[in-house]
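Thread: "does anyone have the structure for this chain?"

Original post by V.I.:
We have the sequence but no experimental structure in hand. Need at least a predicted one for the grant figures.
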Amino acid sequence: MPVLGGDQIEELRFARLALEPELVRKSAENITPAILDRLSQIDAALNQAIAIGDIQGYMLQNHAFHMQLYGQADYQIVMPLVQALWLRAAPSLRIMCGRFGTQNLPDMHQRALTALRTGNAAAAAQAISDDINQGLDNVRAVLALPAAPDPEI
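Reply from O.Q.:
Generated one for you, tokens below.
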């Protein structure tokens, strides 16, 4: 799939913000201590990937965190839509990570986990909204930069 353009980034933002925070609100109703522990493990692996500059690990763990969280909503129609949105964003996210590295990637997951542990579904949804916005803002900013010159030329 091609890299996203500016209008497509905003369309993706619109769709993700319409669906994902609502999945978090619904997921909060079904969250268990075991799921919170699993989400914490995934987030720890994500943080480790960030610390060592492992772009593939970051992308895999970030995806795993969101899908594990959203999966608790048990929405059979909405989840495939969200998964398709993530697939559409993946090439641009990969480019952003390649240019930007992993050290300054946003991580609102701890805020979401803290809110879920205290039963605050609205705060968890807001943390995920902030995560989506920061991520797409970074993609937009990095994709606006010219590509690095090819060292072979």
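V.I.: this helps a lot. The helical segments are 6-30, 33-52, 55-71, 78-100, 109-117, 121-143.
O.Q.: and The chain has a mean pLDDT of 86.
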